[in-house]
């Protein structure tokens, strides 16, 4: 599914940045900054697919020279805290061709030129070798002043103002979404991008009665793999495709993300099938059919809507099972702290009983410990004595309790006699 991203940043002198350095880095060229007296050389930078400059119709010829263009931008700003350039960062859909990505980027850049009268320098970048291979993107660097026949003139305050800046950027975001959706439609893609916030998209889905889309937008964000894990998972997918087998994640995060995606896909399919069955049932009832007949028709329609012969319950069970044991993914060996702690507690028990318990915990049977460690030849453990008490019949326990009480009473009588003797003055001499 194509994802939407458009961000706008400023190149400010107060942050120690310059338009010449920004342009040189993004297009991978060497530009000497005349204002600073520094050379910005990024000719070794890789992954740059295409660069081009767009200017208004009446712009001077030197504007097509990148070094001259951005040095003139720097010269037109005299304040030490000036904003010298503005960068529009665009995510390009990986679902369309490279030519289509170039065209929609050029269309967006031309819209910036026509709307604000600025100079635009574009660099289209390929995904990083170690990152997500869908991350095609473009850096669109624009001047903050209008470029006319005599050079750079007035500032584009419409983008700087707090009242109009947000509105202007929102309109450009809408335009960028429209350009992408047109390209996706030409490529036969069904999914569309949306420039609105997730909350706005969710409210729109609820208004049109699409509860499934609203539920999708309301879900928690997906776990991020990170560059290293993402690179490992991409290699695993490529190997699985070449070998003609099912992809099995090789990292713990990859397994969690893969299981979550499969579960969402299965749930989405199940919801669609239920909606079809519900609609069929309602149509049959409206046509005069009884409940049983309408139910049978809905069940038949639902079975016909199933994507394959695999039962949905089995799919969900398989997904849950994979998410628990991570499939064939290697697991690091971890210490069993519960077992080790239990051994420590047992070893504190006195004598052979503790040794026998630990030996048994390690997987040995009781006869292996020798004749002297059997129950008859050793003192019962606390656990065994507790079991004996719990397993005794209630009547037996009550008799023993009475015997204990009788013993206690006899002991108490003996103590009373002793105290009386001690208090007798006739026996004290």
How would you describe this protein?
A hairpin with a 4-residue loop joins strand 2 (30-33) and strand 3. The chain has 4 domains: 6-195, 2-Layer Sandwich (BirA Bifunctional Protein, domain 2); 227-325, no CATH class; 335-391, no CATH class; 393-429. The protein is of the alpha+beta class and 429 residues long. The chain has 15 helices and 9 strands. The strands form 3 sheets. Strands 1-5-7-6-4 form a 5-stranded antiparallel β-sheet, with helices on both faces. A two-stranded antiparallel ribbon has the order 2-3. The longest helix has 35 residues, at 252-286. It starts with 5 loop residues before the first strand and ends in a 6-residue tail after the last helix. It has helices spanning 19-27, 66-76, 98-116, 157-160, 165-186, 198-207, 211-217, 227-243, 252-286, 291-304, 312-325, 337-347, 351-361, 382-391, 394-423, and strands spanning 6-12, 30-33, 38-41, 48-54, 83-92, 120-125, 136-143, 145-148, 151-155. Helix 9 runs antiparallel to helix 10 (291-304). Helices cover 52% and strands 13% of the residues.
């Amino acid at each position: 599914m194509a994802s939407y991203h458009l961000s706008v940043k400023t190149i400010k002198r107060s942050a120690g940045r310059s338009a010449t350095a920004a342009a040189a880095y993004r297009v991978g060229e060497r530009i000497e900054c005349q204002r600073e007296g520094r050379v910005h050389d990024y000719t070794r930078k890789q992954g740059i697919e295409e660069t081009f400059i767009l200017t208004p119709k009446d712009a001077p010829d030197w504007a097509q020279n990148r070094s001259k263009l951005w040095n003139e931008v720097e010269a037109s700003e005299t304040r030490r805290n000036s904003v010298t350039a503005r960068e529009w960062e665009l995510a390009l859909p990986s679902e369309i061709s490279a030519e289509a990505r170039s065209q929609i980027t050029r269309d967006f850049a031309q819209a910036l030129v026509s709307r604000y009268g600025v100079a635009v320098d574009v660099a289209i970048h390929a995904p990083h070798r170690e990152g997500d291979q869908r991350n095609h993107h473009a850096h669109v660097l624009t001047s903050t002043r209008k470029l006319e026949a005599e050079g750079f003139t007035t500032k584009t305050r419409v983008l700087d103002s707090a009242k109009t800046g947000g509105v202007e950027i929102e309109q450009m975001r809408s335009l960028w979404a429209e350009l992408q959706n047109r390209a996706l439609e030409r490529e036969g893609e069904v999914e569309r991008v949306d420039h609105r916030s997730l909350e706005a998209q969710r409210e729109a889905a609820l208004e049109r009665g699409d509860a499934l889309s609203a539920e999708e937008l309301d879900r928690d964000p997906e776990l991020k793999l990170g560059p290293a894990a993402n690179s490992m998972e991409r290699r695993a997918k490529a190997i699985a495709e070449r070998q003609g087998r099912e992809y099995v994640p090789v990292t713990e995060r990859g397994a969690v993300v893969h299981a979550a995606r499969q579960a969402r896909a299965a749930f989405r399919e199940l919801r669609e099938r239920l909606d079809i069955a519900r609609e069929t049932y309602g149509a049959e009832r409206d046509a005069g059919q009884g409940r049983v007949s309408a139910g049978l028709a809905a069940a038949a329609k639902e079975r016909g809507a199933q994507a394959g012969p695999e039962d949905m319950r089995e799919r969900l069970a398989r997904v849950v099972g994979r998410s628990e044991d991570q499939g064939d993914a290697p697991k690091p060996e971890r210490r069993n702290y519960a077992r080790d702690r239990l051994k420590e507690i047992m070893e504190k028990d006195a004598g052979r009983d503790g040794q026998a318990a630990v030996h048994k915990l390690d997987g040995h049977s009781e006869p292996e410990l020798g004749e002297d460690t059997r129950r008859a030849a050793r003192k019962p453990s606390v656990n065994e004595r507790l079991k004996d008490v719990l397993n005794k019949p209630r009547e037996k326990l009550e008799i023993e309790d009475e015997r204990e009480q009788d013993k206690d009473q006899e002991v108490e009588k003996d103590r009373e006699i002793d105290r009386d003797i001690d208090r007798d003055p006739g026996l004290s001499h």
